[in-house]
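Researcher: Here's my situation. A collaborator sent me these components and asked whether they could plausibly form a single complex. I don't have experimental data yet, so a predicted model of the whole assembly would be a useful starting point for our discussion.
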Amino acid sequence: GNSVTQMEGPVTLSEEAFLTINCTYTATGYPSLFWYVQYPGEGLQLLLKATKADDKGSNKGFEATYRKETTSFHLEKGSVQVSDSAVYFCALSAAGNKLTFGGGTRVLVKP
Amino acid sequence: DTGVSQNPRHKITKRGQNVTFRCDPISEHNRLYWYRQTLGQGPEFLTYFQNEAQLEKSRLLSDRFSAERPKGSFSTLEIQRTEQGDSAMYLCASSLVGLEGYTFGSGTRLTVV
């Protein structure tokens, strides 16, 4: 079956530090890949996505590249802010409808 | 459009009681999904509807769970004879076609005591 594995948190960083959250997946076919963010007390929001190999998704300074050869979709941001403190979820969709999520990575950015 | 709306936001119930949650999707979205998220975990797919038809159900959806979407608009998720293991956040999402514009609601947090 389909599965997503992402690094466990919490990840604690200082403001302006570089952030990487690793995500690898197992899926049949050619899935679409997503990063969702969940701020405290709020619902899941789509951060970025990529639908085919070598695509790069980007939004709000975050980037992730769909690497088919390593089945990975790592999330990066060059300079984090306190407002980036949240839980980040990697997800895939293999059939164009439901999402399969990783366990989430909590990120805490300190001033 | 106010997005995907879920009610109630919080529900505390005694073990063995029945509970029902409601989800109002974005009005033009024809697909509606239910997920369950337990503390410290990612959301897990439960079921989804296209219009009023329930097209897929996860094996996580035991016989005590039932979901409906009459008239293809709002949806309800009912849990009968609740157990402590049902305590979780229940998330609803809607989309127009596939994952296009996939939008989550803020969820209903269920606590079974």
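Model: Some features of this prediction you could bring to your collaborator: Chain A touches chain B through 19 residues (CB under 8 Å). The CA atoms of residues 9 and 39 of chain A lie 15 Å apart.
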